[in-house]
Amino acid sequence: MNYDLLMSSNAEVRIALDALRRIVQALRSGGSDDRPRTRVSPAQLFALQQIAKHPRASINDVAALTFTHQSSVSVVVQRLVARGLVEKVAASDDRRRQRLVVTARGRRVLANAPAAVPERLVAAISGLPSSARRAFARSLSQVAVEVSPAGSALPPMFLEGAPKKPSRRS
To answer: What is the pTM of this model?
Structure first.
């Protein structure tokens, strides 16, 4: 292999990995020092912000707004409900359907929270020219397939783990 080509390839790999590290670091930190004070994960904050922007959204609506599978959003919404940040209310047109509403406590959390990093990530990717966005999506998907375990399940929302299993304490 040509040395100059190898060095160019190494530089591109390093640039890509540095970019991924910066994104992961931003996601972990929540983008600000406010996260520890609000005690809301980046995924929960993103979902909470979308619910606030789209009053009476359903879980399926929030899944579409966050570009996440419904099952992952459902777990995040359950956590928001358990913390008293969101309420589920019956839809006025069909009492069998539930709509999501941010509570007063949820609004207080939002008042002290920065823009969610996943929201900024969506905006950054959406802002790419369509050809670059397609190439980025294709390339990143290919990398994800290569590094993910075979048969892995759908990933949860950013940095939001699977629900904790109840402990078996006597």
So the answer is: 0.71
